[in-house]
Queue: 3 jobs
Job 1
Amino acid sequence: MEMDEVSIDDIPTIEVGQGLDIEEFVGGRKKVEKLSVIDIESPYTEDGVYNEKLKRKVKALKVETEVVTTIKSKEGKEISVRASELFNMRQADNGKWGISSSPRAKIQKFLKRQKVASLKALVGTSVQLKDYEDKKTGNKYLGFVCE
């Protein structure tokens, strides 16, 4: 492909997609619909010390709401948008992964907030939507109040 010379005076401003404005959903309520265990990379040691260069493979509990809205991709495909939160999991001495029993753990605070005693009981409970920003990328995501 041949490149044409472009005059600085002739350079147009090209509109780029702004993504989904999630502000309109913040403060609304949706029901928890799905729980799953996913693999993530963590920059924290087993003792909870942050190390930016560390990429330790761990498991996390992903809690998702019912569909909040749908958007169309550039290809015209519908994409479901859900609010979600990740909760740390711990590996026991026997190698099994589970959730922390500490009352200070995010998952325990969430279970208490939702007034349930088990993970399965979270499904169907109502959560208040919130947004949060990825400090590295500046991208905004839809989550929910956990504490």
Note: Strands lie at 29-42, 56-72, 78-88, 90-91, 97-98, 126-133, 140-144.
Job 2
Amino acid sequence: MSRQGGNGSRRSRRKKEEEAEKRSAVPPAADQSEGAASNPQSPEDRPDAGNGEEQTEISAPSGPAVQPPPADPADGVSITLPLGRLDGYVQRHIDVRLDVRQSRILNRLYHGLNDRDRRLANDRHVTSTADVIRYMLERVAAEEEKD
């Protein structure tokens, strides 16, 4: 008689998270090789390739729009968040379960802040993901105080 539980439920949860991640993944941008297949001449084979001048070929888009490359993640990100009024009970403790995508972003934020030796308002280094949340909230508070 085999026992089911413990690790079996963890494996299925991990499998579900991986499937959810695949569903939420952004489809890759149009592959450059698709354009090459429709235009058999490589840049070296074109008659105007050897004249030393850089030329730009403009044509009507034939496939899906190609998104510009994202900003360098090392530069950080900038987002706008709405702030509501302060009303009622103010919660000081949260216990949150993150999905795979959120946990990866939190991990990247942690390493970005820790690698850059960022500190909290109390002069402590950012040494945990909880400190990442504290750091972000402190930054929002600082921006609110400017206005």
Note: Residues 28-61 have pLDDT under 50 and may be disordered.
Job 3
Amino acid sequence: MDHVLIVLGIIAVLILFVLASPTKACRCAGRCARCKGTGRRFRFGARLVRRVIVQAHKRPWRTRGER
């Protein structure tokens, strides 16, 4: 049971880190396919976390008993 809590804690920390800093510097010298010339790349999972949060805000919350 302790291992499950540790893994959940690590996942929570990763999600909070990605929310706080979703991009990192690209190592390219100029234009590349990864950063498309901006010099910034998204961290692993940043787009997925952002997509989930936006969908959660768009979805209407239903009250109890309402269908």
Note: Residues 15-58 form one domain.
